[in-house]
Amino acid sequence: MDGRATRLQLLSFATIPMRNFHFAWMAFFVCFFAWFAVAPLMPVIRDELGLTRDQIANINIAAVCVTIFVRLIIGPLCDRFGARLAYTWLLALGAIPVIAISFSQSYEAFLFWRLCIGAIGGSFVITQFHTSVMFAPNIVGTANATSAGWGNAGGGATQAIMPLLLTALVSLGIEQALGWRIALFVPGIMMLVMAVVYYRCASDTPFGNLSDPRVRLAAGQAQRSKGRESFMLAARDYRVWLLFVTYGACFGVELTIHNLAAIYFVDRFGLSVTSAGLYVGCFGLLALFARALGGLASDRIAKGSGLQGRVNLLFALILAEGLGLLAFAETVSPIHALVVLLIFGLFTHMACGATYAVMPFVNRKAMGGVAGIIGAGGNMGAVAAGFLVKGSASTQTALFTLGVIVLVCSVCAIAVRFTQAQKDEEQRLYEEAIAARAAGSASRALPEGAAS
């Protein structure tokens, strides 16, 4: 399997694939934490800067808008330079706007830096690319979903931690207007530390870094499409654009909830900033297991139903997500809203994991391009949802309309098709991975020296 791992040993750092798995999700966790560190503090920031509802909508759109373009670019860059350098530079440069936004004194300055922070969202593509090249077909869906899910949990953690951090600073006698600014230094510093760790400890392939020509040859990278070629090869495949839409319908909704749910709970149900942050944090923390559950389910279904089983599962999950979102928009109490939020959030996160359990099989020669375009779809969905919220009479109306749109988008999942030749080839690779895993288990079970 070209050095790729055939099992996911979550407590292990012993192999190159597992070490890179852990570095990938930790880097994504830090990036996601920093990306949405502002969101739970928005009720405080709104009051200090005197922001209007339209201005807040613009800020939420800005937070996810630039990510579309970064994700389109970062995927081919992974194909060209490898995940290690791509992640290192994204972490280092992304820390700048995270820290700079704390110095904002006006709506315009805040909007600009929030727009720049959106570039951090490109980290998702690198994470999925990195785990895709480290794991074999029998486990790649689970690996992708787990790394993304654990990383996405940073969005839930920041919803809970940032308000608590602000409260701690205020309790020390620091004014609230200064406290939120100091609090935003924390995620920026975390990103700089992670950049150093990734550069020093991560590797591009199971054999080492692509800077070594021997590693490129051993890993089969010599024939991989590079840069613009990777993007164009992916862009010509209709299945990529169908998954672009489905990912917009699940991850786009996830981003939208992260951006507006705290204010929604404060304004609709009268909760405090801290309580609202904890409520929304529960939604984000579902990613700890729900994304992985979506990838695991996809891998299990693939054993009997192949690639088509993967896309059928994706359809069912997005359909359930849309129905749950409709129910969430109609809730009348905070507890009821929390329960429904967690139920539809489960399907949302699982759908995200199931999407990237399909992604590695679309085009192996342009995996970075495929990952980038599909990932950009998530942010395109969030931008579209942002404009929907801005143009709606109320957030509740926008959420209901969004639920209807998600239901329609679910049809794109079952429209994804694979040729019989591709199904046969992927089934062969899947069976090889299963056989390699079984052989590895058998060799470990033998007494010392018995294998000779």
Automatic annotation (TrEMBL):
The GO biological-process annotations, alphabetized, read as: nitrate assimilation
Which molecular function terms from Gene Ontology are attached?
nitrate transmembrane transporter activity
Q: Specify the Major facilitator superfamily (MFS) profile domain's residue ranges.
A: 20-421
Please provide, in alphabetical order, the Gene Ontology terms of the cellular component aspect for this entry: membrane
Give the subcellular location.
Membrane
What protein am I looking at?
Answer: NNP family nitrate/nitrite transporter-like MFS transporter
Q: Spell out the PANTHER family in the cross-references.
A: HIGH-AFFINITY NITRATE TRANSPORTER 2.3
To which species is this protein native?
A: Povalibacter uvarum
**Family annotation (InterPro entries):** MFS, MFS_dom, MFS_trans_sf, NO3_transporter
Q: Where are the transmembrane segments?
A: 21-44, 56-74, 86-104, 110-129, 150-172, 178-199, 240-265, 271-290, 311-329, 335-358, 370-389, 395-418
**Family according to the record:** Belongs to the major facilitator superfamily. Nitrate/nitrite porter (TC 2.A.1.8) family.
Q: Which Pfam families does the entry mention? A: MFS_1
Instruction: Please provide the record's keywords in A-Z order.
Output: Membrane, Nitrate assimilation, Transmembrane, Transmembrane helix
Q: Does the keyword Membrane apply?
A: yes
* Topology of the protein relative to the lipid bilayer: Multi-pass membrane protein
